[in-house]
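Notes on consecutive records. When two proteins share a document, each keeps its own sequence and its own token line. Never mix them. Below: protein one.
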Amino acid sequence: MPLVLLGACTYTRVMQTVSIGVIGGSGYSGMELLRLLSGHPGFRVAFATSDRWEGKRLRDKIRDAQRFGDLAFCSVEAGLQQLQQCQVVAMATPSETSLSTLPLLLKGGLRVIDLAGSFRLKDASLYPPFYAFEHSAKALLEQAVYGLTEWFRSDIPQATLLANPGCYATAAAMAVAPFLKKQLLAEDTLVINAASGISGAGRKATEEYGYMEIEGDFRAYRLRRPHQHRPEITQTLERIAQRPVDVAFFPHLLPMKRGILCTVFAKTKAGINQAHIEEALGEVYGGEPLVEICPTPEEVRIASVAHRPHLQIAACIEGNKLTVVSALDNLLKGAAGQALQNLNLMFGYPETLGLLYGEK
């Protein structure tokens, strides 16, 4: 296979592209995924569905998507008639839609990456209280591979059903996981405050998510009604720590389009100092291409990761009190960017192909 050099990036160009269908192409995550796929040399979009934009060309709705030519959005029903053209389907729909559609795709022999939450949790009993529906495909929960890439990378290449993590869950779990992995934390409650731009709520046509309601405001939400990312965060951290982990999670809504800033408060074991904290971050994330370790928590900023596929992180300690701050773009590292990172691994491409600037 010939090597192709683009700027500073060298990769092996595969001889055959992978055909992918996207169900839910007019939601924020679906649009972002289509934008990324339009510039990726290894994927060919066979179809993209959108009931609201049916018949309209993708390039007229998706930024930087001229490569799609005259390919138009189709209905879900029409998309399902084209599955034989695909090797993989990306679900970028509400969780209930994903739950009802995804089993049909698997039965047809397709691989699926699910950007919704319908297969993130292993415990089916958690879906009624946190997602407000009974899980109708419990047998698939164990099969689903959870795609927090930096932590479960070895599981991803062989995945048939890939559950792409939630945005809050990615920011929170990646913030605290290094210190659990290195066994630096006491077994106290982890307090997670996280604030997201309004695109994290999806394209909701409700008054409370309208610009006139949110602009100039900053508020907590979903405190009395449990947020669906809390058990996802707990499940991930317990898997990494190999012990029970108690999580208190407080989501907030930012008056901006995109981005998440997450602050985690934890207590360390006796004798842990700043050097131990920085060593843990360096050992875990030092070689990660999409993680940036900042010198201080004050330097972690949404503006630094907006429209980029990276997560920023930094931590400091005072006595036995640890503060960790992380930031990411909720539509990229928190959704479509991480999905493409996982798709690259699923099909043998370089992990960052199509994500880093200058790489085509």
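Protein two starts on the next line and is unrelated to protein one.
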Amino acid sequence: MFTGLPREMLAFFAALRFNNNRAFFEENRAIYERFVRRPLLELAEALAPVVREIDPDVDVRPQRAVSRIYRDLRFRRDKTPYREYMWIGFRHPGESREETCGFYFDVSADEANWGCGYYHMQAEFMQNLRARIVTQSRRVERIVTDPAFAAEFSLMGPAYQRQHAPPPGLCAPLAKLYRKKTVYAEHHVTDFERLFSPALADDIASGFRTLAPFYALLRECMVRTGKETKL
């Protein structure tokens, strides 16, 4: 049962920032298992019902949703072995984190966020979204200007400066979205005390429900060779 994130989790991430080595991690492995990994597994389990409610095809197994703390060092200049943050990510089976659109929560020593979108949006998916912005402009505008959505989430992701100029007549939010290279909607936690409460799971679940129309729109854009990903 999820009872809130422990303060020891944030302390562990802060200490790891200055001691990112195998000796420190092995010495503190029990702290990691008890105060980091276990609470994240419990939070993932608490969020699973709302994720399945939104998209029954998502893999909600906590062991699959919670990230590894070990970094892949094969192609990195930075050889520090451990991540100084972790996340929960829900996606369809067989989809890689780099390509999929999914719901997520992430936490580090000094930051926490939740939302949905792409870690790395494929160019063809973004082109599909631009097409919908033009052909379904009223629908997309309703989604991104919905008061509940706008109050909790910001549309994130880098944008082109010169390419993909929006066509005339789009409202400002859609014109801004049209220029994106990749896009995700994110809520940034400002009240850290909320992290330590069982109510955190309810906050995130409510946010995921608010994101459901935006999530559905992005999933529709995952089209390759004429085959559309189904919800």
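For the record: Strands lie at 85-90, 101-108, 112-118, 154-156, 184-188, 223-224, 227-228.
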